[in-house]
Design a protein that fits this description.
63 residues, mainly alpha, 3 helices, 0% strand, elongated
Amino acid sequence: MCNPSKGVEERGIAIGLERGIETTTLNAIRNLMETLKLTAEQAMEALKVPKEEKVKYAGMLKG
């Protein structure tokens, strides 16, 4: 039999991992900006943030 709670658990873990990665990346961007006096764009380039994610992180930095 299929256990529906297993799917919910797996989805919750995936969401948690995604949020953790976002938080870590955002902190790394902020640290580079503060320590090395980089712009957000320069910090994201240094971290090799994918182009499609840069808008998301730029918004998170402003918010």
